[in-house]
Write a structure and sequence with these properties.
Number of strands: 2
Helix content: 55-70%
CATH superfamily of the largest domain: Tetracycline Repressor, domain 2
CATH topology of the largest domain: Tetracycline Repressor, domain 2
Structural class: mainly alpha
Distance between the termini: 50 Å
Number of helices: 24
Shape: globular
Number of domains: 3
Order of helices and strands: HEEHHHHHHHHHHHHHHHHHHHHHHH
CATH architecture of the largest domain: Orthogonal Bundle
Radius of gyration: 25 Å
CATH class of the largest domain: Mainly Alpha
Length: about 500
Amino acid sequence: MNFATVLRTFLGNRIIKSTEQTVTFTRNLNRKDRVVPRTGLTRSRIVDAAFCAWGRHRFVHTGLDLVARELSVTKPAIYRYFRNKDELVAEMERDYGDQTMKYVVEPLRRFRHENAPLTPDDVVRTFCGHIFQLFEDKPYHYLFFLRRLVGRTLRTDPGASSARTDVTGGAELLSALTLLLRDAGVDARAARYLLVAAVFWMTNHYRADLGFDPATTRPFEPAHLAQSAPRKGLLITAATEHVVRGFAPGLSDQIDQEMVERIATIAPEELPEPDRIFLAIETVVEEHGYAGATVERIARALEMTKSSLYHYFRNKDEMLSRTVLREQEEFARIAALRFRQLATDDERLYALFVLFADYAALRPQAAIVENWVRESNIEVQIPAAHVVEVQKIYTFITDMLVAGSLAGSPGDAFGILQFIHFLVMQENPKRARGDSADRDNHTGHRRALRTLFRRFTDGVQTDTVGGAGTHRTETDSSAGMSQQGVKTL
C-alpha cells in the first residue's frame, strides 16, 4: 500500500495530489455518473451487472457478492453507490421503466402519429413486436419482471408507501395503448386485456424454459432461447390472432353462462380452514410488509420457535413446498368435481374462469404467499408426479385443441391454462386479495368475468366501438381500475 492509498483511506472527501494523477473523491451517492478511479464503476454499470449476475441465477440468488464478482470489484466499492441491496433493486425497477419507455412506449407514440388509419391488427401486431424486442434484447429484465414485479397488483403490503411512484412504465404504457385502440375503433377498456395477453404470449418461450417451477436453480441462458426472425414473425402473428380474434370465436354465446356459474361457484364452507402457515404469513405480511416477513416472525405467529418449525421441515423451502402442494391438491379436487357435473368442454372452459376467480377470492392468503415466495427467493419444489396428476384434470383443453374448437396445437394446452389463470388474477386484483367491499360485489364480478371470457374466446374485435361487441361489454372490470392496477406490466 503506497502513501497515496493511505491518504485516500483516511482523508476520504479531500483532494489528493500525486505526481501521477489528481483524484477527486466525493460522497454524493446520488450522482449517477460518478466514477471510481481506475475501475470506471458507475451506478448504471452496477445496475447492468446486477441484472446479469442475478438473472443467470433466475433471481433466486441476489447477493451483492455476485454483483461484485460480475464487475471484478469488492463489495465495499458497490456500497459507494448503493447503501444496501434494497436501494439497488429500486434502481433496477427504475431501469426497467426506462427500458419500457425506450423499447415500447415511445415507439408506440411515434407509430400512432405516423400511421393512419389504424386497424386492431395494426395495433396488436405492433405492440407485440415491441414487447418481444424489449425482452429479446433485455432477457434478464423479463426474469426481473417475473420474479420482482408480477403480482404487485395483488399485494396488500403495509410496508410499502401507498404513494409510491410508478417507475416501471405501466401507466404510460396503458395510456399509449388506450390512444392506439381508440384510433383503431376499439373500446379503450380492452387495453388492459391487450397488455396482459401480449406480455404473456411474447414471453412464452422463456416460461417454457423455466418449466413448471419458475424458481428452478438451472442457470438461465438467454442466448439459447433467442428466436430466429421467422420464428419471431410466427410468434407475433399467432399472438395477434389470439388477441384480435380470440381462441374460440362465438363460443361465449353458445353456452349457458348462468348455469355454469351456478355449478362452478365455490361456497366458502366447501373449503377447509386455511393452512396455519398461510395464515401466519398473511398476518406477518400485513404487519411488517413483505420485506419484514422473516421466518422468525412467521414462527412467532405460529407460537413456535424457528428451531421448532424446522423440526417439522428441513428448511423454509420444504415448508412452503408442502403447503403449496396441499393448496393445489385442494383446488384440483374442487375443479375435478365441477368438471364432472358439466356436459361439454365448452362449459368446462368457462367454469375454469369461475373457479380461478372464486378460489382467489376465498383464499386471498394464496396470493399473498405466492408473492412472499417470490419476494423471498424461495424455491418451491413441486413433484413431477403431482404435476402429471393435476394436468389430467385439464385434459379437456387438449381435447378442444385436437378437435379444433380452440385455436392452437395440443402442445399449447398448458400455456393456455397458465394464460387463463394469469388473466383472471391480473384482471381482478382487489377481489383476489380479499378486499371486503369489492368481494361482496358478486353480480358485478360475474359480469366482469363474462366480459373477460368473451375477450378470451372472441378477441378484442368484439370491442369495436359501435360494433357487435359493444352492447355486451357490460360492467368492465378494467374500466374501474386505476393505472395502479397495471403498473407491473
